[in-house]
């Protein structure tokens, strides 16, 4: 089971100006959800449980006044539950738009970023606001809007239908063939390059954080809860999943954004092709470690 390190492990100062901010796309242009670090065996259409009490929309966004999340959205099944909150399926009452409703506890993550014109926003909201600024990337999940509540903040996220996280997809359908793996890789790199252009480091790339359309095989990068602002200097605190962390973190306790991202993409690609992680113990990986490929893999895949 993957080891998870949460946002409380961050030590870098995050209250910084985000120059060049553009407002995210209006909700009419968004189409559907994000999960937290959720259960591995789930699709994004399931049965129902009660969600926490809803609050009023944040006044930092331009939304209709005096409107609560409950008034605007109907909650459906619980999609997943992670270290920082829960994610529910939902629909927008005004037009039936499928969404995901993500509740994040303020007590578990209190990092905030200053967004020009909007003040201090919760970290994940601020990072998604930045990556969703126009022109948006079709391979990054969209934030529709968010609500500021006394004990939680609630994110309304795009929910493609039908879709599944990539890990559940390959576990149920078998490892990806070369052509599909290539299609996924190209889209993932597109998403990450877009994040880089917006000054955002995702920091938790893995199959569970990729949604794949079961119809078109289009993918979307989700869950920026472990993210940070991009910088040239080394990161000295880790947030993400240890199995996808670069060796330099375990050896030197620091890492740089580019090489760490490339490493996590490589681990992800190996996993979806082979069905298991490339190293049994990432913290023991050195320059002398050898990577083994199953015999059935073609030379092209290797």
From TrEMBL:
Cited PROSITE patterns: PROTEIN_KINASE_ATP, PROTEIN_KINASE_DOM, PROTEIN_KINASE_ST
Biased composition (Polar residues): 1-15
Keyword Transferase: yes
Binding site for ATP: 102
Alphabetical keyword list: ATP-binding, Kinase, Nucleotide-binding, Serine/threonine-protein kinase, Transferase
Catalysis: reaction(s): L-threonyl-[protein] + ATP = O-phospho-L-threonyl-[protein] + ADP + H(+); L-seryl-[protein] + ATP = O-phospho-L-seryl-[protein] + ADP + H(+)
Region (Disordered): 1-63
Gene Ontology CC terms, in alphabetical order: cytoplasm
Entry's Gene Ontology BP terms: negative regulation of apoptotic process; regulation of mitotic cell cycle
SUPFAM superfamilies to which the protein is assigned, alphabetical: Protein kinase-like (PK-like) (SSF56112)
UniProt name for this protein: non-specific serine/threonine protein kinase
């Amino acid at each position: 089971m993957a080891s998870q390190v949460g946002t409380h492990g961050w030590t870098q100062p995050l209250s910084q100006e985000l120059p060049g901010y553009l407002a995210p796309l209006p909700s009419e242009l968004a189409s559907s959800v994000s999960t937290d670090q959720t259960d591995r065996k789930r699709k994004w259409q399931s049965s129902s449980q009660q969600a926490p009490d809803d609050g009023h929309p944040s006044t930092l966004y331009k939304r209709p006044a005096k409107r609560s999340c409950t008034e605007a959205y109907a909650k459906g099944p619980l999609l997943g539950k992670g270290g920082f909150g829960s994610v529910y399926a939902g629909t927008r009452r005004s037009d039936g738009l499928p969404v995901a409703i993500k509740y994040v506890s303020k007590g578990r993550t209190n990092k905030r970023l200053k967004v020009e014109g909007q003040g201090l926003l919760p970290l994940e909201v601020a990072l998604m606001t930045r990556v969703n600024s126009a022109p948006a990337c079709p391979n990054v999940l969209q934030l529709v809007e968010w609500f500021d509540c006394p004990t939680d903040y609630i994110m309304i996220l795009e929910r493609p239908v039908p879709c599944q996280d990539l890990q559940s997809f390959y576990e149920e359908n078998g490892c990806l063939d070369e052509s599909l793996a290539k299609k996924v890789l190209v889209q993932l790199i597109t998403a990450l390059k877009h994040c880089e252009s917006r000054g955002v480091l995702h920091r938790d790339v893995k199959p569970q954080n990729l949604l794949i359309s079961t119809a078109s095989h289009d993918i979307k990068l989700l869950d920026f809860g472990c993210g940070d602002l991009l910088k040239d200097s080394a990161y000295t605190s880790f947030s993400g999943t240890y199995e996808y962390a670069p060796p330099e973190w375990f050896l030197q306790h620091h890492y740089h954004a580019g090489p760490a991202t490339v490493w996590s993409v490589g681990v992800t690609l190996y996993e979806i092709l082979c069905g298991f992680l490339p190293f049994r113990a990432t913290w023991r990986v050195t320059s002398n470690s050898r990577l083994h490929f199953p015999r059935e893999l073609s030379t092209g895949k290797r």
